[in-house]
Amino acid sequence: MYVLTILLVCTCATLVEAAYDGSANGTYTEKFFNQTLDHFRFTSPRKTFMQRYLYSDEHWTGKGQLSNGCKGPILFYTGNEGPIDAFWGSNGFMIDVLAPKWGGLLVFGELRYYGKTQPFGNESLTPENAVYLTTEQALADYATLLTTLKTELNAENCPVIAFGGSYGGTLTTYFRLKYPTVVAGGLAASAPIGYYANTEWTTHNVDQFTWIDIVNKVYDEAENGCLATIEKLVHLISDTGSTSSGLDKLAKTFHTCAPVTPALLEGLVFWFTDAIETIPQLNYPYAVGTLPGWPVNATCKILSQAKSDDDLLAAAGSIADMYYSRTGNDCVSGQGQGGVPGGGPGPAAWGSWSYQSCTENLHQFSGRGVRNFTFNMNDAVQTCMKYFNTQPDPLWVEKHFGGFGIGDGLTGVSNLVWSNGLLDPWHGGGFLEKKTSNPVILMPHGAHHLDLRGPHPDDPADVTACREAEESYLHAFIQEYAEMQK
């Protein structure tokens, strides 16, 4: 099967200042929409809540008028698991490139139960209130928000192009699949849909270790011996904590606010391994925040300079500081989540994804290499019953939306672009072969949805060319819609 693996240089990329980190420069207005709590029950009166969204009509001036009279396309970000304003900065491609070029209206919808969109305020994640946190409800939120806005703005004939990264890319795919009259097309970047389609894992070369094996591979290929050193270091942290003096040393090394006790040792190990496991998906070619460019390579370099066990522990502290942005005399909790690699069930204090892991988005991942972990469904069920009184059903989203069947052409969905960076552990659950009319783009030097960020002089050629191809495909979707709506 043909897959578009980008290896070309796009000579038309916009150059920016060296200090630029790919973050969006555009501005927005924060707004709120009176959203329906339960879209699938018709009792009266219907309960509602305030859904936050970000809005920018700076470029929606009519300069991008389409052949059907539409003022310009609507570019919509399908908000995922976090505050929506946190995703604005990492979407420079749509904000600073496509919206100005196409005269587009920008709308970023916040996912229910995240950020300021809390249907029940501080009580949103109690077991009785969290039941409205489902993918189906979230998609209905976005469909309702957009159709209402289009009516209010006299833009009923304007195409909506959806954008999303990671779970947001999954939502973009589902959005086009379930609401094809609302959204004309979309860019689903780093969408790990296949990780939630366990019945088809074997036929698509996925297993419980796929995610962690990609993490291991990225470190192993970055520098010879790096992965082995990480494995040694994880054991060293645990062994150091076997004595009271060692616990004191770990507290100083990691700058914890509270003393490290035997009961807190495992959480401290997770503090380090959580960072190690996450850095590969943030393996961007330029500095972002306190992470340097190519942070996997930087991590391996720090470790390679250690000449003793004490040096290795100090290196672990430096890597943790780099990842968690600790500076000066700041102290940290030093308590990581551990558990299922990539995130899994846990208390409400860990955030709304804990609940989603306990219902329809459970990662059935095990670990080896950087961290050993054996997934156990009974353990997951016990955790979920303890915190939310739920039993996860990992087959539900596959049955409801199609799983790998979407990429295999069994659902008939069209006008989607699926992109994946091969440095990203989430690409293991992506659609990596073109089996439908929907383009599939692979970036050998790309990390987690790097293509959604704004152009940067240090972008690898494959990432730059990926954006050029995406722009061409998405523009074709817009033109197709306008011609059909004449």
Query: How do the helices and strands follow one another from N- to C-terminus?
Result: EEEEHHEHEHEHHHHHHHHHHEEH
Tell me the structural class. Answer: alpha/beta
Number of separate helices: 15
Instruction: Please state roughly what percent of the residues sit in beta strands, choosing from under 5%, 5-15%, 15-25%, 25-35%, 35-45% or over 45%.
Output: 5-15%
Label the overall shape: globular
Radius of gyration: 23 Å
Q: Largest sheet, described in full?
A: 9 strands, mixed
Walk across the major sheet and give the strand order: 1-9-8-7-6-4-5-3-2
End-to-end separation in angstroms reads 36 Å
Mean pLDDT: 94
How many strand elements? Answer: 9
- Give the helix proportion (percent range): 25-40%
Low-confidence stretches: 1-19
